[in-house]
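Retro notes, item 3 of 5
We never archived the inputs for the flavin-adenine dinucleotide complex last cycle. Fixing that now. Sequence and ligand:
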Amino acid sequence: MLADRIAIVGGGPAGAYAASSLASAGRDVLLFDEKLAWEKPCGGGLTDKAISRWPFLRELPAERNWITNCELIAPSGAKVRFDLDKQIAIFSRLTLNGLLLDRALNSGAEVVRERVVAIERQRGEWQIQSSSSRYSADYLILASGARNPFRSIFAPNLGPKNFIVAVGYYIPGTSSTVQVKFIDGLHGYIWIFPRADHFSAGICGHMEGRSTAELRQVLEEHLPEFGLSHESGKFYAHILPSLTPESLRNMQLCGEGWAMIGDAAGLVDAITGEGLYYALRSAELVSEAIVCGAPESYAIAAQQEIIAELERAARIADRFYAGEWLGGSVLERMVQLTGSSTRFRQLMRDLFSGAQEYSTLKKRVYRSLPKIAAEALVSTLWSSDSLPRSAAAAD
Ligand SMILES: Cc1cc2nc3c(=O)[nH]c(=O)nc-3n(C[C@H](O)[C@H](O)[C@H](O)COP(=O)(O)OP(=O)(O)OC[C@H]3O[C@@H](n4cnc5c(N)ncnc54)[C@H](O)[C@@H]3O)c2cc1C
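Structure as it came back at the time:
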C-alpha cells in the first residue's frame, strides 16, 4: 500500500520531525497537536550526538544554552566537576518544539491545532476524529508522547514498572554547568539543567518506588544545595517511559498502516532518561522507511539501532543505581573515579556527549580498567586528600 496521505498524532519532537521529513519528500502530511509549541516538562538537554546528526539544532536561530561543564554528586555528597569536550545544548521545550513545528510547516505539512479524540480503521483507511472535525489518512503515525492514549489500539498497554515519575521546577537564572546528584535509595537522580534564562531543576525516580509528592519533597529539600529555591519556581510533573528489557524485547513498533515513534513507543534510555535523541531518530527511521516504500522496514531498522541499545541500558539500570563495586556503591565509585582517573573522566565525557554507546561500554571498561585502577591508586597515594568531598578534575 502506498502511504500517500499520512496523519501524525502529536507534534512534539518526534511527530514534528517526521512531519517535516515526510512533507519534504512530497507526502501529504496532517500533523495534529492539541497545544502546538508548549513548555513540555523536560530537562531540554540535547547531546552532541544529537546536535551533530541534525545540524539545524545548532544552526537555526533559537535561544539555547551551551553547556561546557558537568558536576556529579554522589549520595555521600562527594562531588566532582569536569569540563566537557563536546558541548551539550539545553533548550526550553517551547523553543525546541516551536523550531521543529516551523520546519514541519515550512516543509509543507498541514499543522492542525486540535485534540485527537478517536482513531479507527475503516475499509483500509484511518478515520481520525478530533475535537472539532473528522479526517482520513492512509497511514498513521502515533507520536502522542508518554501518556499515549491510543496505545491499546495497536499494542498491549505498558504497566507502571515501565515508567518513571519526574517532577521539577523552572527557576530563574542560568549557568554553563549541568549538575547531577544521586540520592541513596533512589533509582533516578536530581538534575539542574541551566537554560538560556532559567533552570530546569528536577528529580526522577521509578513509579513503583516513590510517589510524586515524595519526589517533590526530596527535590525541594535539596535545591538550596544548588543555590536554588522552589519558591521562585514554577512546578511541573510528568512521566517518562523507562521500559523493562522484557517490554523492549516484545515491542511492536509498527503494523498494517501504522507506526509508533518517540515516547509514544517508549523509546527512552532507562539510565539517563534521554528521549529527545530517540524521538528524532525514530521519526527519521520511520520517514525513511515510508519514503522508500517499505514502512514495515522501520521495525527492523529501529530494532537494530534503537531497541538493542535501549535494552542494554535497561539491563544494567538497576545495577547502575543500586549495585556495589569495589566495596562501595557504583554511584560513589563513579564519582570517585571521575575525579581520580583521566581515562575514566574521558569515558564520562563520552557518555555525556553520546559518543560512547552501551554496545561498546563493557569492552572499553575492560580495556581501560588496569589504567583506571592505576590512576586511581596513584591519586589515592599521592594526592593530599585521597577522596575529596569536592574536586575539580583537571587533565
Ligand atoms: C521531566 C522530564 C525531563 C526530561 N529531560 C530530558 C532531557 O533533558 N533530554 C532528553 O533527551 N529527554 C528528556 N526527557 C524525555 C523527553 O522529554 C521526551 O523523550 C520527548 O519529549 C519525546 O518526544 P515525543 O515527541 O515523542 O513526545 P512529546 O514531546 O511528549 O510530544 C507529544 C505531543 O503529542 C501531543 N498530544 C498528545 N496527545 C494528543 C492528542 N490526543 N491529540 C493531539 N495532540 C496530542 C502533545 O501535546 C505533545 O505535544 C525528559 C522527560 C521528562 C518528563
